[in-house]
Design goal:
The protein has 322 residues and is of the alpha/beta class. The chain has one domain: TIM Barrel, CATH 3.20.20.220. Helix content is 47%, strand content 12%. The protein contains 13 helices and nine strands. It has a nine-stranded parallel sheet. Helix 4 links the parallel strand 2 and strand 3. Helix 6 packs parallel to helix 7. The two termini are 32 Å apart. 40% of the residues are buried. Bound molecules: flavin-adenine dinucleotide. Flavin-adenine dinucleotide binds next to strand 3, helix 6 and helix 7. The site of flavin-adenine dinucleotide (FAD) has 22 residues, from strand 3, helix 6 and helix 7. Keywords: FAD, Flavoprotein, Oxidoreductase. Its cofactor is FAD. Pathway: One-carbon metabolism; tetrahydrofolate interconversion. This is Methylenetetrahydrofolate reductase.
Length: 322
């Protein structure tokens, strides 16, 4: 079955993420951004303002996460399709196995193909409600992301990415187990991985070393680091929820020192410290040869564009493909 068989519009003329990274033609390391599906019309309007802000800076790709709720899921497919059809951006649709049969997953991939999307980030997802709760596979679904990578690849001309975990996935007993399963997902047909966010660049570098040592062929595939600029102490808690583990003490100390001892958090100082931390991390990743910088935006442009501006990125003419 080809993408054409799955949907009306042909998506196979769309570049893959890896090709976009290789041919991006910017003088700086490519960057990319992650959006979340909007929950209502007001959130959707805000998302579009953010999308247009980033469009002027020519990210290598933009990704749209995939949630657990039914209405949001329909909105996700629609909005991701609009990114493909109504912008100059290259969208990547996240796809999770949570609460889906294989037949439903195939139909979803068909909807993406129909909307002109051929880049999919394949994930298992977390149990709805409690991400750390017991994982229960759908009776007609898949157990691990690796199986879903094969399913999506078998459906046609899709370009697949997967998740990687610099500090190990919270369900992995140790880092070696974690790295073996990452290599298996890549061998199953994934072309790159995007990491979970982290706040110590050493963890990213060690993941890269482990993967190269285990399997040089898979280790040569891009590992795209994910960053999230911290803008308040509340974002620290959000970051810890998303990482499933506490932030490094050195980072928390810097942010709490900026917050001050007063009854109110010094929000401007915390924000400045958060932007500075993200800028330092991004610069180190560039120096260490990261293939791209992927930013969690929570659908706001300001913090990420400040980090990018600090690094010398700006509004540019469309890059000439290399
Ligand atoms: C960049 C990124 C984007 C994300 N986007 C979303 C999103 O849009 N929506 C969402 O709900 N969640 C998202 N997540 C969260 C993700 O779904 C969870 O972290 C989930 O718990 C793991 O997904 P996975 O695809 O890595 O799972 P898997 O690769 O299936 O791994 C799950 C666990 O099983 C282990 N494992 C894998 N294969 C085997 C095997 N054969 N035998 C034994 N153990 C095995 C792994 O080591 C790991 O511990 C994202 C995560 C990242 C890093």
């Amino acid at each position: 079955m080809t993408v054409d068989d799955l949907g009306g519009r042909r998506a196979s003329g769309t570049p893959s993420v890896v090709r976009s990274l290789r041919t991006h033609g910017q003088r700086l390391v490519p960057f990319s951004v992650e959006f979340n599906p909007p929950r209502d019309a007001a959130a959707e309007a805000r998302l579009w303002r953010t999308v247009r802000e980033f469009e002027r800076m020519h990210p290598a790709f933009v990704s749209m996460t995939y949630g657990a709720g039914g209405t949001t899921r329909d909105r996700t497919v629609r909005v991701t399709g609009q990114l493909a059809g109504e912008t100059t951006l290259l969208p990547v649709a996240h796809l999770t196995a949570v609460s889906h049969s294989v037949a439903e997953l195939r139909a979803l991939v068909g909807s993406y193909a129909d909307a002109g999307i051929c880049n999919v980030l394949v994930l298992r997802g977390d149990p709805p409600g409690d991400p750390l709760g017991e994982w229960v596979r759908h009776p007609d679904g898949v157990e691990y992301a690796e199986e879903l990578v094969r399913i999506v690849r078998d459906l046609g001309d899709f370009h697949v990415g997967v998740a990687s975990f610099p500090e190990g996935h919270h369900r992995s007993p140790d880092l070696d187990h974690d790295t073996r399963h990452l290599a298996a997902k890549l061998r199953a047909g994934a072309e790159y991985s995007i990491t979970q966010m982290f706040f110590d660049v050493e963890h990213y570098l060690r993941l890269r070393d482990r993967l190269v040592a285990l399997d040089p062929e898979q280790g040569a595939k891009p590992i795209i680091p994910e960053l999230m600029p911290i803008t308040s102490l509340r974002t620290v808690r959000r970051a810890e929820e998303l990482c499933g583990r506490p932030l490094p003490a050195a980072v928390v100390d810097r942010l709490t020192a900026a917050a001050g001892d007063g009854p109110e958090e010094d929000r401007a100082a915390v924000r400045a410290a958060g932007i500075e931390i993200a800028t330092e991390m991004a610069q180190r990743l560039i120096d260490e040869g990261a293939p791209c910088l992927h930013f969690i935006t929570l659908n706001f442009a300001k913090a990420t564009t400040e980090v990018l501006t600090n690094l010398g990125y700006g509004v540019t003419a469309a890059p000439v493909p290399a």
